[in-house]
Amino acid sequence: MTTVDAELFEQHRTRLRAVAYRMLGSAAEADDAAQDAWLRASRADTTEVENLGAWLTTVVARVCLNMLRSREQRREDPFEIDVVASENPEQEAELVDSVGVAMLVVLDTLAPAERVAFVLHDMFAVPFDEIAPMIEKSTAATRQLASRARKRVKGAEHKPDLVRQREVADAYLAATRGGDFEALMTLLDPDVVLRADATALPMGRSVVIKGAAPVAKRAMASASRAMFAGVALVNGAPGLVMAVGGKLAVVLAFTYVDGVISEIDVIGHVDRLRTVDVAVMDI
Predict the structure, then answer these.
(1) In the chain, at which end, N or C, are there fewer CB atoms within 10 A of the end residue's CB?
(2) Model pTM score
């Protein structure tokens, strides 16, 4: 019997972890999935395996599918925003950037089979006929699942003013991350209003803040959290989404007037988050 030794597996671990992270949205869970795949591979007979990389991808995909189904059954609520989802938040932030916060958030709204089909085919070019047995579907049904997921991920209908709004949202995020108060002020209407629900803020109470300077000061206080945020289409307009452990934690829905932000709705309550329509922006 031929098995996979540790040295050979390590040659594939980085890619397997990348597959798992895109499926699970959590660095810690991706590590667990890769380790589980190693344990299974070390005990399996690979004598007739022709393409070890493809075979290991199948193994880790099955592990991830089981984890996604278990997660769905538990119906876990989103993390509180002050919870550290990883022992290494810098590493987690790098992984988030490699995929995109909006992508992780939208992927988290997909059913397990849809997520597996879309990630494996669209991100890692795995043929549908190889994915189908993993999710116990026909090839045709698997193709349909991926297509449905693709429409959800890229569900936005772009309008001309979205380009400018996207630029403003990008600049808002950059200014917040960089602590650039003056740059942030140029993006806000002088009479901008920020409304935040109690769950979205560490103090646990809702707030309403009026005026560009006070709103900018509040944004500066969130600089450390901004590394887990990204620009997405939020209810039809560019806004910000924050993911913790691959799950939607906070949304900043922007209203634009004359090319600047006039209102910011900061949403963190789980019931309100379920009503938010988030899509990936490809402009």
Answers:
(1) N
(2) 0.74
Which distant-in-sequence residues (6+ apart) come within 8 Å of 260 by Cβ? Answer: 168, 186, 187, 188, 189, 192
Q: Helix or strand or coil: residue 260?
A: strand
- Dihedral in degrees, nearest 10, Cα atoms 64, 68, 74, 79: 90
pLDDT of residue 176: 94
Instruction: Give the Cα separation of 211 and 237 in Å (integer).
Output: 22
Q: What residue ranges do the domains of the chain occupy?
A: 6-153, 160-279
Q: What whole-number distance in Å separates Cα of residue 68 and Cα of residue 148?
A: 18
How would you class 14 by CB atoms within 10 Å of its CB: exposed for 0-12, middle for 13-18, buried for 19 or more? exposed
Q: 6-153 adopts what CATH topology?
A: Butyryl-CoA Dehydrogenase, subunit A; domain 3 (1.20.140)
pLDDT score, position 181: 95
Biggest distance spanned by C-alpha atoms of the chain:
72
Domain 160-279 fold:
Nuclear Transport Factor 2; Chain: A, (3.10.450)
- pLDDT tens sequence across 118-156: 999 999 999 999 999 999 999 999 999 999 998 878 755
The 3-state DSSP class for residue 228 equals: helix
Q: Which amino acid is at 134?
A: M
